[in-house]
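Hi all, long-time lurker, first post. I run a small reading group and we've been trying to get comfortable going from sequence to structure in the token notation. Rather than ask abstract questions, I figured I'd post a concrete chain and ask someone more experienced to write out its structure so we can walk through it together at our next meeting. Sequence below, copied exactly:
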Amino acid sequence: MGGRTRWWLFGTGGVVILAVAVFAIVRMSTPDLVPVAPVNTGGVTIAGQLTMTQTGPAVSAHLTISADRAATLRQLVVRVRDEAGGAHDFPALANVAVSTTPRELVFNGELTTPGTYTYYLAYQLTGDWVSLPPWQTIAIR
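-- Answer (accepted) --
Happy to help. Here is the structure in token form:
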């Protein structure tokens, strides 16, 4: 009878060791979950429509902009890049108030060299600049 008890204890110990090994393997193969906070927590959401018109070398960017709440943008600019990546940004506006009511703004600049230019809206609320898609193009002839 003592032999059976020993085999039973060994068998139970084997099951426990096997269960610990399986748990360890499963635990090692499962990545830890990392809590993720929402991106831009407390930030403002900006929406806009940007179009360009050309009259000779003069180019006007027409912007309709709104936000999900009232905010003041430290800077607002229409960024323009030529095919080689050269910057031809329009003069930036400072301290632009935005709200849920759409606001229309016009930026004026010149693009004297023929070619295709990419343009987009960018703003600075507190620190870093934020670029807003879509990146659109205009062909200057």
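A couple of things your group might point at:
DSSP finds one helix and seven strands in the chain.
The two ends are 102 Å apart (CA to CA).
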